[in-house]
What does this fold into?
Amino acid sequence: MRNVHLLGASALALAIASPAFAQQQPTDNTAIDEIVVTATKREQTLQDVPISVAVTGQQTIERAQVRDLIDLQSVVPSLKVSQFNATGQTNFVIRGFGNGNGNDGIESSVGVFIDGVYRSRSAAALDDLPEVERIEVLRGPQSTLFGKNVSAGAISIVTKKPQYEFGGKIEGTYGNYNTRQIKGTITGPLSDTLAARLSGSVNKRDGFFTNTTTGNDVNDRDRWSIRGDVLWEPTDKTSFRVIADYNKINETCCGVTSIYNGPATLAIGAVLKKPISDTTKVFDRDVIFNTDPSNKLSGKGVSGQLDHDLGFAKLTAITAYRKQTSSSFQDIDFTGADISNNRTANSIKTFTQEIRLASSGDGPLSWLAGGFYQNEKLDTGRTITYGSDIRAFADALSGQVPATLLAALPATIRPALTGKSNIYALEFLQSLATPTLVKPGSTYFQAGQGINDYYNMKQESYSLFGQVDYKVTDKLTLTGGLAYMNDKKNARSNVVMNDPFSSLNLAAVPQFTAIGLPGNLYSALGALQFFYGNDPTHAPVNYPNASESGQLKGDKVTYAVRAAYDFGAINAYVSYSTGWKAGAYNLSSDSRPPNANGVGRTANPEDVNVYELGVKANFPGGYANVAVFKQSIKGFQSNAFTGLGYSLVNAGEESVKGFEIDSAWRPVQWLNLAASVTYLDPKYDSFTGAACVTFDTARCPVDPTTGRRPNFRDLTGDTPAGIPKWNFSTSATINHELGADWQGYARVEYDYSSKVQLTETVSPALASYDNNIVNASLGVTNTAHQIEVSLWARNLTNDESLISAFPTVAQDGSYSGYPNAPRTYGVTVRKSF
It folds into this structure.
């Protein structure tokens, strides 16, 4: 959104390996050229910029086969990106902070921007951007430059502008899993002041997983995109850039496998005789769905950027409109039985407008001021329906009518209930009193029952921001930044429950009360109330209503102060900054009215503050940059998936202490080395409202009279899940002259993250993993004909881990997970002209 040109350490060592750079080598063949950046809208070298930032350049993206933001984390260790049960559900985490995946009512704490345009919901795809110039990752709150939803950091993708010289590039890739990708771009002048670029891509691949029930692939790739880019520069002081794009995805996604089969899942195999996953073969990547999942997504947008030099300042205005629609279908019991299916869909329309002024001149004072406005309309929802095997599943879990219950019944009806399930017994007893309403065997747990769970939300937000840099001396620069942010959301729910069993208050069923139902039977039946079972009304309460306005408002002033000092070969800075993210709606059926016995309808805003000390040092042939920080979030919006919905609550406070090191070194002309390290020590300083889980029996004991656990547990003092203590990435690139016009290179990367519990809703014994990923590429380039051929491999050693895990839907005590991508390899041919 700010078009901030920040070039970072993690890309530098690879950028200097390119043939083009080799023609611009300094006299000292091991020296690294200075990189000029404009982080505060004035030119500075990378070593002068007092910000913790990492950037991946175009060559790294190409040679490392970085196809999307998920791949990017292999070269930026402080960034973690995960895709779960749909292509559009992508979660971004920087320094351990980030949320928003899966629940459309929550915005991410990490803002994603493409050519200055804020992407409120990003599918994390780079396939529609063939000519990426660089990807910038800014770590820590960035409110004074970005304003909107950057309380944990920002990711800015910058593409290449149209050129006034005719040229282009086309590349083709073929790899295992029948990977086929074609990308191309062409650019050139339309007049002396008008240039254009047209780009497109097609990306196809067979699935990493096999659905053993249907025999079809799952987790395939099938997407295409087209993008037009026009640059008009009528004078040397004015430019106007218009970008229009369209992309489409139609994939069989996503692969989920069981990692632990509890009693409910085992009953599907033993009683229903339906196939279930073999949890000893998680990484065979076989899935067992009775139907194949589907995932469709389309996105389109247009943006215009005006830049005009006013003399005393540069004016920039960016206007954009985007629309994204998606739909998916998934067998959410993840077994061969037809128990439950989920259809989801959303439509998101977003308009953004930004205007800013950045001062010109070489004086000691420089400044930046601007404003940002966003208007978004969101329609989202799901329909969960029971399948043909739901009754047999419920009968098996409820158990047969116990002898103690039969003995309490009149002798005339005992034969009718002998050997029957407790669900049937309930229907039978109720039918005696209400024969027109309840029929034994055909009232509860019938195919087609379930829930319609739909919402719409309108959001309007704006921010005013400014930053001032004052050069006190040639060595000392002071910076102050200020931002005011205002956000308003209007939400409406339309939830209709079509599951009559979940609507029962089992403790008040007259027929059961009269005969003194055993407590263990309450427990067995209570566990089958999949929707609103832990709510006293056993029914949704839609809003707005008499006591709920359906409106959420908030505003905040954030600021940043910083001092930077140039010691010569070493530059140092110290800073304190704050960030804010607006409140959120829980757009899922776990949403409850305020003060009800359940998770809240909304979450309050997040308040972020970070203390940071940075040192950037140059040495012969390289550099090393270090940032030490302490960052905390008050009111962290915890969004835990609990099996059928989301528990959205605010943690009192979550903090992390740590450091980051980025370094590059060229010991000899033909060898480039780079390494980055991130250390994080996170803690829940206060979190009394964490979602209860099955495995934590001490803090979540089952009430034998209801079969229910408490809604919340206290995680104060615990280590948050999903945040590895150590992240490390390193790379080595060897360049070699092969003769006239021919050059070769070999590159290897290693990406490591320490073992960590993936999520708080799954036992660490089941879902704790580390990562040891090796990527490699080998290529040759002909500079005369501008042809490059490369062989590449990602996850060369086929390291196996889970991306995430969660409680299996409607199968209490069972857990499922998302295995990582296996080893992929292929060949890419690239031709420039």
